[in-house]
């Protein structure tokens, strides 16, 4: 078998979509004659932990090497005695740490992972190093390992580095340092993988030495095995289940959707009473308060964070799914991982998204009702339209050819063919 060293900070038992991408890649590697070894974190705090994903890794018998490190984020979330909101503390510490830790506050872990990987590479031969970013510090250490041991390096861009939507650069010098580090790492990389065309375009425009062939696109996807043998949760009524799955943060917010639904309860209470709003994931304290303020408690079902397999059951048991991406700088490069789980469920989607990659994917999917992210009246009218189609049994069906292209196994095979093509070329 060929051997690939995977460096991934975000990995089970952590949860959420960035974790799922790498987990699903390594799950299917052996099937195509590649043996993965994953270097990842040990005990660390995070938004969510997912035992179902951890079980999947263990059942796949993937070799995992865990490296401990106490980053500022984990330290903040582990404290019990903060008087302020935990989220405010974390955001403040994150911004402070971005000023002092370049390129990110995971650099301590990345340096420890570098030492562990270096000792491993002295003992064993690997054909490829694969690193998924963010965190961006892992890309820098992977580039050092690639140069030291003369091993091909593939880097997976889940988000932009330069121009990242969560970037906090106190001065122009901070921006310069980030771009310089990214430039140095990209000069070493043998192949770049991007989750969408917008990220590819921005990389080509920012780093002119990159060619079109240097960057391949492998979008987020869904694992068809997750959707097999699922029994939908029976309904005790004929109300339309409208579900959001995922975490809210900063510019990804339920604020406008909830305000639109509040308007609906005034203008068309007959329709509002026939809809249930289901939320899966960390709903956040401010959103619970907003639901109370708008008087929507009777319509909202908050399930909190669920293990991935439980979340999939809830998605499949829904009539319509909802997605939101706020219109912020470089939001056109964002394609949330949950969107592709929605595709795998083959359910109609209300997508409140700006121009960009997410909107393009929704348009190709077909069974999507697209609105601007913050247009309350447009969102309200879309809910009315979707509800009417639901009652008539005329909700649209997705483009099956498009859905099948996003099967995680198909995507893994595509990536591994690129690995082998590179090995043959050298």
Give a short synopsis of this structure:
With 426 residues, the protein is of the alpha/beta class. It has helices at residues 17-29, 51-59, 72-78, 86-100, 107-123, 137-149, 172-188, 197-206, 255-267, 269-272, 285-294, 308-316, 337-345, 357-365, 376-392, 400-404, 408-425, and strands at residues 2-7, 34-41, 63-67, 128-133, 152-157, 191-194, 215-217, 240-245, 275-280, 300-302, 320-324, 349-352, 368-371. The radius of gyration is 22 Å and the shape is globular.
Description:
The chain folds into 2 domains: 239 residues, Rossmann fold, CATH 3.40.50.2000; 180 residues, Glycogen Phosphorylase B (Rossmann fold), CATH 3.40.50. The radius of gyration is 22 Å and the shape is globular. With 426 residues, the chain is of the alpha/beta class. α2 links the parallel β2 and β3.
Named CATH topology of the largest domain: Rossmann fold
Which structural class fits the helix and strand makeup? Answer: alpha/beta
Largest sheet descriptor: 7 strands, parallel
Terminus-to-terminus distance = 18 Å
Strand share of the residues?
15-25%
From the alpha carbons, calculate the radius of gyration and give it in angstroms. 22 Å
List the SSEs and their pairings.
Layout: E1 2-7, H1 17-29, E2 34-41, H2 51-59, E3 63-67, H3 72-78, H4 86-100, H5 107-123, E4 128-133, H6 137-149, E5 152-157, H7 172-188, E6 191-194, H8 197-206, E7 215-217, E8 240-245, H9 255-267, H10 269-272, E9 275-280, H11 285-294, E10 300-302, H12 308-316, E11 320-324, H13 337-345, E12 349-352, H14 357-365, E13 368-371, H15 376-392, H16 400-404, H17 408-425
Parallel strand pairs: 1-2, 1-4, 2-3, 4-5, 5-6, 6-7, 8-9, 8-11, 9-10, 11-12, 12-13
Helix pairs in contact: 1-17, 3-4, 5-6, 6-7, 9-11, 9-15
